[in-house]
Amino acid sequence: MPIVLRELTQQQDGLAPGHGLCPGCSESVVVRQVLHALGKPAVVSLATGCLEVSTTRFPYTSWRTPLVHSAFENAATTIDGAEAAYRALVRSGKTQAQDITFVVFAGDGATYDIGLQWLSGALERGHHFIYVCLNNEGYMNTGIQRSGATMMGTWTTTTPIGKKSPGKLTWRKDMTGIVASHDIPFVAQASPHAWKDLMTKVQKADAVDGPAFLNVLSPCNRGWRYQAQDTIRLGQLAADTCLWPLYEIDHGTWKLDYKPHTKKPVTDWLQSQGRFSHLSRPENGPVVQEIQHKVDEEWERLQQRCRE
Amino acid sequence: MATLTKQRQKLGKYSGTPVALDGATLVANAMRQVRPDVVAAYPITPQTVITEAFSEFVANGEVDTEFIQTESEHAAMSACIGAAAAGARTQTATSGPGLALMFEVLYVASGSRLPIVMHLCARALSAPLNILCDHSDVMGIRDAGWVILLAESAQEAYDNAIQAVRIAEHPDVRLPVASVMDGFTTTHGVERSELLPNEAVAEFVGPYKAPYSLLDVAHPVTLGALDFHDYYFEHKRQQIEAMERAREVIRCVGREYGELTGRHYAALEPYRMEDAEVATLVIGSSAGTMRVVVDELRRSGVRAGMVKLRCFRPFPGKELAELLGGVHAVGIMDRSVSPGAANAPLFTEVSSALFQHGHAPLMRSYVYGLGGRTPGPAQFRQAYQDLLACDTLETQPAAPRYLGLRE
After folding, report:
1. Which residues in chain A are contacts of B68 at CB distance < 8 A?
2. Among residues A48, A264, B55, B233, which is most buried (max CB within 10 A)?
3. CB-based contact (8 Å) between A269 and chain B?
4. Is residue B196 included in any domain, yes or no?
5. Can you tell me the mean pLDDT for B113-118?
6. What's the pLDDT band for B3 if we cut at 50, 70, 90?
7. Are B230 and B152 in the same domain?
8. Chain centre distance of CA B283
9. Who contacts A207 (Cβ-Cβ below 8 Å, separation ≥6)?
10. pLDDT value at residue B219
11. CA A308 to chain CA centroid, nearest Å
12. How many CB atoms lie within 10 A of CB B166?
């Protein structure tokens, strides 16, 4: 299905306005892009997190799709159950077959850390669903704590800047790589600034027979300490500094979806957000160098994989 | 195992006839006959037999259930929640530590009013590591909002498994049900039982239509919303009311099942209680042993009786008070402990119920059989002798007496 902006404006949003997400939050942008890209009914499972608490405050709901939330770690398994129910009920004739997509939205806390096992199990079992990780690089819902997606040198409330600490001491997990190692049909990294790329990936994910995983960078102005109007611009900067490359692995074939004309230095990224402000101090120079080194290394490895 | 496999395969032919089977396989057959839309489970001793047997039913096409073989028990219950939310008749099975791992989502299941049925093979909790029976796991979920039925025998486990579906799905209830059998004693002990014809079970449980389903995309609902100080309390109250309504549903379903099978079920099963002056209250497989002891005592002229508690949630406090209120001394048999509590779990429950209903017989607490220690007749005889020597309230010890323990 071609993605035509003019037509998308005529579609009803799956997520209604009036939710409680912060001004400047990218999550509602991503959710709407995903649901628009599907353009058909979706059954959604949410992990506990910003999106869930901001859109399902009883007695209201922002969702025009069926929605289930169970707990923090088990959104993938919850959608498994729903998807299995669908297959069972259709097979036994208790429900009519219909073209619906099963979708999970979960933060990086729910994906990289507490829910890793649940996601891994669901991927291995081969359920037919799209898992969208809204990756804002920290536990933002509980007030900006570090996660496995938080980059080295980042300030969070649990990796504070102190006499002995320049923020988070370790690198982030390669969650996209971990998922790719499950050998599922479609895995990708995306960002809402590249909306057409993201929506195309959603459609590819929907077309495959089996699980699909989208790791979507979701800039968070509260947690990252930047002005609300810069959310989309930061997505672009993450891609231009190669901190968040846009790529996909379609049935095992790696493909780079965006190569910056000029690769920007990570200092551009670090200077754009308050969570890195301490890194401009001279004593933190080595941390900045190490970040640049790691980003270069990962970028090189990714390019190689995509050339193979 | 080869023998078991052979017996499992035979079942189809001998439906409706007596079978010699272990409790776990029998319950797996109840699952086969109920034909849940979705089963999600993770194998754990001593529940493993159920998972294996059900896997065979799936592999042989005897059921068209979607069987989700999860990577943990927490995931099993999580998948059950998703499936039940999508309108599927859903079941799982577990034991001790597996139940403990599910703890968080057990509350999600009951709070979301999802009629999931769980077959629980009671097992001690670690540490020390132990795979054998006690009721630590069962008592651990007493506040989780699940209906809890306990079986004495393989037959009862089978019968409860079938009734559990009706109870859980009843519009007045819509709560998950844990159907408990004792690990190894009941799960692995081979007993003579009767298997209903497939059609009889299908007819008894009937079709299931969920009032809301995630699959109804034309009428989208949000399930599992965020509930703060302004609504949470009211929703919890509704859950409590549903549990209260379950009393009548359990009674009716038990009666109807009795008409079908000749085996009638209620929340309590009194044994020789008409003129009893000394009695015990027991749950699970030990009821059989206790019955033997009661008969012995009766033969020697002691007016002994016994009450078997089948339904732990909702707790039949009023009926229990009526049964035990007139008895001189009552022993409450606990197969679990709650260190530092007023007393062992079942004792605390019973004494609270009797006090509320204005009855105060002499009551003593007996703890037995932890970690699978065999609860023999000698231990139970000792309990009755102790009760018979119990003269006044003053002689009531504060602490439980431990039966069969090396002090």
Report:
1. 80-81, 84, 125
2. A48
3. no
4. yes
5. 98
6. very low
7. yes
8. 9
9. none
10. 97
11. 26
12. 24
Contacts of A87 in chain B (CB under 8 A): 66
- Note the pLDDT tens digit of each residue in B319-370: 999 999 889 999 999 999 999 999 999 999 999 999 999 887 899 999 999 9
* Closest Cβ–Cβ partner in A78, A92, A100 for B81: A78
Quote the distance between the C-alpha of residue B204 and its chain's center.
Answer: 20
Yes or no, beta carbons of B68 and A52 under 8 Å apart: no
Place of tokens 């529940």: B47
Q: Where residue B365 sits, what CATH number does that domain have? A: 3.40.50.920
Interface of B with A (CB under 8 A): 37-38, 40, 64-66, 68-72, 74-75, 78-88, 90, 104-105, 108, 112, 207, 213-217, 220-228, 231
A159 phi/psi in degrees, rounded to 5? -125, 60
Range of the domain at B291: 268-402
pLDDT tens-digit series, residues B173-228: 999 999 999 999 999 999 999 999 999 999 999 999 999 999 999 999 999 999 99
| Residue B313, both tokens | 């949630």
Q: Is residue B177 domain-shared with residue B277, that is, in the same domain?
A: no
- B53 and B25: one domain? yes
In this structure, the answer to whether residues B72 and B129 fall within a common structural domain is: yes
- Using a CB-CB cut-off of 8 Å, the residues of chain A touching B238 are none
**A82 and B65 in contact by Cβ < 8 A?**
no
- Per CATH, the homologous superfamily of domain A5-307 is Thiamin diphosphate (ThDP)-binding fold, Pyr/PP domains (3.40.50.970)
Query: Do B29 and B176 share a domain, yes or no?
Result: yes
B216, B305: one domain: no
Element (H, E) at B133: none
Domain boundary among B261, B292, B319: B261
What stretches of B172-248 adopt beta strand conformation (E)?
177-182, 190-194, 222-223
Instruction: Confirm whether pTM is higher than 0.90.
Output: yes
Establish if A197 touches chain B: CB-CB under 8 angstroms.
no
Q: Which of B227, B261, B295 is the last residue of a domain?
A: B261
Q: Report the percentage of chain A scoring pLDDT > 70.
A: 100
Amino acid letter, residue A148: G
Q: Which residues of B touch A118 (CB under 8 A)?
A: 71, 74-75, 78
Query: What is residue B16's predicted lDDT score, i.e. its pLDDT?
Result: 59
Structural domain contains residue B312: yes
According to the model, what pLDDT value does residue B398 have?
A: 65
The H or E element spanning position A102 is strand A101-107
The whole-number pLDDT of residue B397 equals 59
- Dist. CA B346–CA B282, nearest whole Å: 9
Q: CATH number of the domain that B232 lies in?
A: 3.40.50.970
Contact yes or no for B86 and A98 at CB 8 A? no
